[in-house]
Amino acid sequence: MTDVPDLQSQSDQQSQSDRHSPLHAEHLALDAVMVPFAGWLMPLRYSSDLAEHRCVRRAAGIFDLSHMGELRVEGAQAGAALDYALVGNLTAVPVGKARYTMICAADGGVIDDLVVYRTGAQAYLVVANASNAEVVFAELLARAAGFEASVTDESAQTALIAVQGPHAQRIVTAVTAAGDVDAVANLKYYTGLPATVAGVEALVARTGYTGEDGFELFVPAARAAELWRALLAAGEPAGLVPAGLSARDSLRLEAGMPLYGNELDRTTTPFEAGLGRVVKLDKVDADGAPLAFVGRGPLAARRSSPPARVLVGLEGLGRRAARHGFAVLAGVEKADVVVGHVTSGAPSPSLGHPIAMAYVTPELSAAGTLLAVDVRGRAEPVRVVALPFYRRPQ
After folding, report:
1. Domain boundaries along the sequence of the chain
2. Among the record's GO biological process terms, what is one (predicted)?
3. Is 363 a known ligand-binding residue?
């Protein structure tokens, strides 16, 4: 995704080529502000950014994520193909579980971050960011060519609806078929299963991008509107509201979750982003030999070398928020010394002060380090803090 201010600036530049979600008419009926986003026309907000953000934290929000890419990988060597194509160990994922992983270029740079669900012994569902879905599909096709595996793009036929927030479980199970309620309610984080929700066959997963408990429902595009309406009706007594891209961005920032194009890109490896744990250099083949995968050599070298920059959280000590691209300075009194750049930043509705993520030089990355950010010519004081900024109450 791209930064929310960029989305807002595009709101009057809609193109006839922008694709419509299967829920487009539902958004218009709810008076959503629609903006171009990664080739789609998607809802930025329905009421106010702050109200939608707070509803997700306190009750629940429903999001249309149908712009995401859904790629099916199947066959006797589907797992082996993904082990070669991605940095993770996908053959080790049990059926019904999901894994956060990445697809990297040959030099180790991140092409996209992904969630992969194992839906069967020889079947996986790869979920890609909207802006990268076509590129990821092409890469998977090429990388799977030497394996007994097929790669199919099911994005156009699939809708994705997310319900996020402390009341998400009671809302989703309220419209789940009686025989599936217990299984859905007992789903663990990063697991999924087929279930009937509001009469619609769905893959229901307990995943999300907000820092809250929640569910994502993959359904046939033709049935998306009826499911959306049923969830809205079931959630109304619990305070459920529709939420747009703006709230989704501020929620994921508080949760310290990376955004492709901001914290991740082709010039960045998973290690700079603090996500080296997803790179499984210890993968082995059936004979126990080290398993080659795309980018392995550069990524192995990167793990054993000191970083040139480190992703950190920044807590604003003033009122003015840092934004994507703003320079990080060595301090308020050292405003001429640039030590990094902000990747994402905004006021935090939950915490009541500005927050940001930024890449800085390693010697200034320790929690408690005082720095500054150049906010339109003024050095605003910030403090390095551990990520995430927000953790939901247990």
Report:
1. 4-64+157-254, 310-385
2. glycine decarboxylation via glycine cleavage system
3. no
